[in-house]
Amino acid sequence: MTVITFQGEHGSFSEQAGHQQFGAGAHTVSCKTFEELFSSLDDDRAALGVVPVENSAAGSINKASDLLLNHDLRIQGEIMLRVQLNLLTVPGNGGKIKQVRSHPQALSQCEGFLNRNCLEAVPWYNTAGSAKDLTACPEPNVGVIASYLAAEIYGLEIVQRNIEDMSYNYTRFVVIGKGETGQTQNAKTSIVFTTPHNPDGLSTCIREFADRKIKLLRLVSRPRRDYPWQYVFYMDVEGHWREPDCGAAILGLVNHAAFVKMLGSYPAAVQPIEDRYAQKVMLQD
């Protein structure tokens, strides 16, 4: 059975993304840190990893970007997960909640709901971890914000669904592992590169894709840790590197850039995607 690793407690959105991609029966293994996840792939304790790279509301996840640069792994797939935040508590205590625990980002994304209901927000290390800890030490006045999967795993009551302030809240995950995927339709290619220190360094690199009518999907910069005040650029473009135009553009990028690393060509996720755990709960009502 294929082992798929993710960062966080069981019931996290990363694990939910893994189930969305590989099915509810997928053999998912929790890692405490992103570093542990990447190491599990390096030494073959796992075949694939599910890693969040950006959120539609909060932006890029920098730790994941840094590790993709520093490890010899390839992106093999993409997952778009609708992040649906839910108020959970110990069964029977739905009307008694005064304090709500969760990861600071989840709390901030539900700030309007918490303020309207006069609920105290208490930061916790992890969304699924807040659910796990409440089940281990039940408190009648405490609720948590977490996923549908966390409610299912830890036996908590869903008091209210979809309490996030922004309904269009997606996290983009990538599936990473050793080796590359074959050429597919609707592909996306991810690259990281640095530019020469001259005025048109970046524009010259990007022009290789624009001149071939290849759509630029994402471009973000990160500081180079080994060179202060210099930056690396993470870029996603449409197409597979084996396609003639895309391959020629990448070759042109190599000729102009100071450094280029291919992160992978892989099937792009189709948007929008409804969360199957939400559908499951709705059908049970």
UniProtKB/TrEMBL annotation:
GO terms for molecular function: prephenate dehydratase activity. It catalyses: prephenate + H(+) = 3-phenylpyruvate + CO2 + H2O. Pfam families: PDT. Pathway: Amino-acid biosynthesis; L-phenylalanine biosynthesis; phenylpyruvate from prephenate: step 1/1. The keyword Amino-acid biosynthesis applies. It comes from the Bacteria. The record marks 171 as: Essential for prephenate dehydratase activity. Its EC number is 4.2.1.51. Residues 3-178 form the Prephenate dehydratase domain. The keyword tRNA-binding does not apply. Keywords: Amino-acid biosynthesis, Aromatic amino acid biosynthesis, Lyase, Phenylalanine biosynthesis. GO terms for biological process: L-phenylalanine biosynthetic process. GO terms for cellular component: cytoplasm. This is prephenate dehydratase. It comes from Caldilineaceae bacterium SB0661_bin_32.
